[in-house]
Structures are given as C-alpha cells and as structure tokens.
Amino acid sequence: YTSGTTGPSKACRLSTRYVEGQGALMARCLGIEASDVLFCPYPLFHWDATIGTIVPALLQGATAVIAPRFSASGFWRDVRRFGVTVFDFMGATLGFLYKQGPRDDDGDTTARLGWGVPMPTFKADFERRFDVTLVEGYGSTEGGVMVFQEPGKDYPAGSCGEALPEFLVRVVDHEAQPLPPGRVGEIVVRPADPSNRLLMMSGYFRMPDATAEAFRDGWFHTGDLGRLDTHGHLFFEGRKKDAIRRRGENISAFEVEQAVEEHPAVFEAAAYGVPSEHTEEEVALAVALKLGAELSEDALLAHCRERMAPHMVPLYVRFVDRLPKTPTEKVAKTELKAWHRGRRPWRRSDGPP
Predict the structure, then answer these.
(1) Total count of domains within the chain
(2) Cβ neighbours of residue 91 under 8 Å, at least 6 residues apart?
C-alpha cells in the first residue's frame, strides 16, 4: 500500500518479478551479504519491511528482523540484541534517536549502515555519534527504488543520489516536457529497458482511472516535485499535492518546513495549505518543539522572514506536542487539515485582512 500522507492509501498490484527484482536492487545498493542482519521497525504492509528488508535477506541468505513498532528507547537495544548490521529509517525516526540523551556506548553497535528518507540536517553528527553510515534514495511503492546513494560516495547536500542503471529519471513541466537542470518540476520515471516494465507496479488495485493517470506516454508520473543537477543528482522538492497555491504563487511546503526546522528550538514542522477567506489557500504551520525548548509564534515568524520570500511566511501557526503520523512515521497532513477546519489557530497580526 502507498503511504497515504496526502490522501487515502492505494493498493498496488506487484508481480513476483517486481518483488524479486526490487529486492535484488536493494541487496545490491546496500551491499547485503549472508552475514548481514537487516532490521526494520515498520509494518509489513509497507515497502520497507517487505521489499526493502525481508526480500533482500531471503535472496542473499541473510537475516531479517521486523520489530512490532518503532521505539526510540528500545531501538539500539534491539540493534545490539540481534546483531543488526543494516537498518532503515523514515520520517522523524532519526530525530527521535538523536534527541535521546548521549551515552558512553552510543557508538558500540554492530550497525554499519542506515538507509531511508529524509536525510536529517544533523547527518554528520549522527554518523559520528553512533559510528554508522547513513544513505538515502528515492522511490515509491509504485516504482520501487529508482535512485540511490552509493555508500562511501560524496553527494551534494540535499541530493537523493543518482538514477540506478535500470531506470530513466526525468523532471518535466505541466505539459510533460523535460526541464533543464536546476528547474523544479514533476519527477517521472520508466525502466531503461522496456522489457523490465515489471520492475514497476502493474497498476492500482481496482482503480483503472488512477492507473491511467499515473502511467502516461510510457512514463510513471510520481506526483513528486524535484530537480536534477548537471551531474544527474536528484533533489526531492516535495509532493505536488503538498504544494500550496497562494495568490497566484506556488509554494513548496517542503521548502517552508526545511526553513522552519533550521531554528534550534524546532524538532519538526509541517506546512500545509488551508482555504483562504479570499482566494486559493493560505500557509498554515504545525510545529513540534524540542524537549524543554520554548519559542513564541512571533519569534518563529521572525526566523521565517529571514529565510523565505514574503508570500511563503505562514499565516497560521500551531504548536503541538507531536505531529500526527501514519504507521510508517510520515506526517499525516490530512489530519492537520481536518483539525484546522472549524478552528481558529494563532494568526499573525500583519496577515491579509
């Protein structure tokens, strides 16, 4: 099933060829050998647990460990208990691990590699503290892993890596025309060899219209925004459905969140669009602070004004103990938007009338 962060989850029809092929790609990307122990704390209905963990272990004769749920306090205990060498992360899970109080044995684990998204700004500190290498990639339930970082290789900050040889990756405009390097558009992908089309899903289960919308002119339209640099490195810029349309301007919720999370008191943030009293949408922001941190709405907006264009500065701010999450630890923005309906959160005084 897809994650369902911006709408209901969709069931994907995956062939045996997809399962084996994608599992083999992950085994190659992660350098899995028979001696490895792979660890995943996410549900079995999700790609990471099945295709990204169990299948590579089966193919390589390695061991897979699936935890009932993610636990920040028990994560490293499980890593040591099972002799885990490779683990995956998602959403704010690395943040929860990082904010745990430092211990003398933080670096005393068997883990050599962690993979997932998104890569946090504290990556270098995390790697030093826990003596582990972190890598990320880009993919989806529909298309599997398409882009990945090679462990040990340097990449530009914010890059997901390069397209795997099995896939072609483009960034296109609203007319599906390829965009030049540096321009943001929709990420579209297809197998480099047409005979490998089963490396991607066969379609959405009992959703022919959604399948036809996703696969157009031989390309899978991911619904994600991104850009490519001149070296073919992919940079994820957020979901198309996550884009906020304010007074004729398209605003990337991802960019707003990145700027907000640069504040030292902020643990994580979620930006989303809410109906405007006038036209289109306004920018709303939900923020979870670090343990013991204090921050006022005005101080946060002052931080925002220094880092983003005026039309991107949120109109509404809401502080929460924890952002609502899906079972795979991604922010459930549908819940944030639902909460906003019928309520009046804090609103900046200089906002539009």
Answers:
(1) 1
(2) 118, 325, 328, 329, 330, 331
